[in-house]
Design brief:
single chain, globular, mainly beta, 163 residues
Length: 163
């Protein structure tokens, strides 16, 4: 088996940015759970717009009742958590709404959540919004974008899954 054959057997995914804004390292997130990568690995986005889009095709696998976070599962089993702001659960849903429900099948770029960015800025410790791969045992490696990204358009993660 040649080198090319090995790559053909690998499963690669491109996940689009679920939010528009500036990409920051999880190390900069003022929350020890995300900064410590206890939930998974990834990045955070400091949002400039108030819509969360599906980064890929998949199923809504988690939807918090306060609509501050949503989790998706791809057909390959990769799970992605998108969490708007830090400690936004304390806002008890104020300023958040959902366009989806648990179990919905979604397509890349589809609207998942909306939020009032000014309200999050006023009430949350940070607008940094972690986007983490929560099923890291499936991931061989990933590369994250840097700089500014546009929701639904720019690739946020290139992920190589284990075979």
């Amino acid at each position: 088996m040649g080198l090319f054959d090995v790559f053909k057997k690998k499963s690669a995914l491109e996940l689009r940015a679920p939010l528009s804004g500036r990409v920051v390292s999880l190390d900069q997130v003022p929350d020890p759970v995300f900064a410590g990568r206890m939930v998974g690995d990834g990045v955070a986005i400091d949002p400039t717009e108030s819509v969360v889009c599906a980064p890929c095709d998949g199923v809504v696998a988690a939807l918090f009742s306060t609509f501050h976070a949503v989790g998706l599962r791809t057909d390959e089993g990769l799970e992605i958590l998108i969490h708007v702001g830090i400690d936004t659960v304390a806002m008890k849903g104020e300023g958040f709404s959902s366009a989806v429900k648990m179990g919905d099948r979604v397509v890349r770029g589809q609207e998942l959540l909306r939020f009032d960015l000014d309200l999050v800025r006023a009430q949350a410790p940070s607008t940094f919004s972690p986007v983490v791969l929560t099923s890291m045992p499936l991931v061989e490696r990933f590369q994250a974008a840097e700089g500014h990204v546009a929701a639904g358009k720019d690739v946020l993660f290139s992920v190589m899954l284990k075979t």
